[in-house]
Amino acid sequence: MPEQLHARVEACYQQAEAFFNTRFERPQVSFKLRGQKAGVAHLNTNLLRFNPQLYRENREHFLKQTVAHEVAHLVAHQMFGGRIRPHGEEWQLIMRGVYELTPDRCHTYEISRRQVSRYIYRCACADQDFPFTAQRHALVSKGRRYFCRRCRATLVFSGEQRVE
């Protein structure tokens, strides 16, 4: 895990401890998050997970905003209990009062989609392609059958593949 990110988590906790005059248990920090989310706070297990790709692509803003956003969830949970709303007034108080940041609920990071292969299947209608994922294509090779809803014929692999 990047040293800067770990240092920012620690700095956020020190700010919260000074503000609330209380000690907070440090969370486990993981860098194993993929997809559209920049970070996730697991309240009951005291775990923070961060997206390494979004961190690399948006380092400065990520360190300032996203890390504080997720730490604020854990601090709010420890201070006010489990019955508060995720982005409610307690969380907003921490974002504004402790970290002096705008309590944005979502990030606006550009998300690059990875390319995926589609396996093209066809039916008797012949005017429509059915792009299958690799998982569904593998099921067909294991004997699974899929049917066209219009002509009810079995979908057959055309031998074509396309990258999306």
Describe this structure in words.
Strands 1-3-2 form a 3-stranded mixed beta sheet. It has 2 domains: about 5-100, Zincin-like; about 115-164, no CATH class. A hairpin with a 4-residue loop joins strand 2 (about 40) and strand 3. The chain has helices at about 5-20, 50-55, 60-80, 90-100, 135-140; strands at about 30, 40, 45-50, 115-120, 130, 155-164. It contains 5 helices and 6 strands; from the N terminus they run H-E-E-E-H-H-H-E-E-H-E. The protein has about 160 residues and is of the alpha+beta class.
Strand fraction equals 15-25%
State the low-pLDDT regions, or none.
Answer: none
Which radius of gyration do the C-alpha atoms yield?
23 Å
The ordered string of helix (H) and strand (E) elements is: HEEEHHHEEHE
> What is the CATH topology descriptor of the largest domain?
Zincin-like
Structural class of the helices, strands and pairings?
A: alpha+beta
What do the pLDDT scores average to? 93
How helical, in percent, are the residues? 25-40%
Give the CATH superfamily of the largest domain: Metalloproteases ("zincins"), catalytic domain
Shape: elongated
How many alpha or pi helices? 5
